[in-house]
Amino acid sequence: MRIWDSDVLTSPEGVKEKVFKPLLHAFLDMFFPPLCHVCHSFIPDADELHICPACRAQMMPLGRPFCSVCGIPFLGAGDDHLCGDCIRHPPAYDAARAAIAYAGPVCKLIHDFKYTHKVHLRRPLALLIIQHLNDVVAGHDWDLIIPVPLHVRRLRSRGFNQAVLLGELLARKWRLPMERRTLRRVRWTEPQINLPAVDRRDNVKGAFAVHDVARVAGKRVILLDDVMTTGSTVNECAAVLKKAGAERILVVTVARALPDSI
């Protein structure tokens, strides 16, 4: 492209956008080729997500119709409505939404993020939330983000709280404060993944506490985690936050395990 083309010389911003930016991308691609975060294949014309079309095709966004409370998707068409579990056992949170079904490439991304210290993967995972759930958040006046806390023993062994790392990016995007010390895990619990679904609720009972009630009283809270399986952990967190006076709680996760995978 010639820099004297009339459609470029409209303003300095036009020059920067139409000439320098593509050249910079081409330079960076030469020395740092964009590779898929999942399969590590080269991605021509990669966008900020850095996941190749083949891996994206294996991801299943969780769209309507779904349970209007827990967000579990229903087969077929129709309106949103309550699922049987939410009718029989209403959760403490007001609504829960996940971006993607917990299957395929998303499982690998989250596993590598949490257990192999690839903390740079927080960016594509946060972008998945933004791409699929931004309208859910933007449509309400939320006051703050609270990440699901880890017990100090697990935090020391892992070195980071994955929900906090995701929350830092989402707080910036949604322009919301994040309270990382208000909700605390005060009792050690066995990893939920090691337990059958029927035992997970008892496992986390009494495991959380609010450190400063004034920070959540009357607030509309986004409760953030990476994955929602049975919902026992986020439900216990929500119950504690509601007891402390939280007005409304929306659970937001990257992924949601569907019933046949729990």
TrEMBL record:
InterPro entries: ComF/GntX_DNA_util-trans, DZR_2, PRTase-like, PRTase_dom. Residues 27-86 form the Double zinc ribbon domain. It comes from the Bacteria. Signal peptide: none annotated. Pfam families: DZR_2, Pribosyltran. Residues 201-256 form the Phosphoribosyltransferase domain. Belongs to the ComF/GntX family. This is ComF family protein. It comes from Pelotalea chapellei.
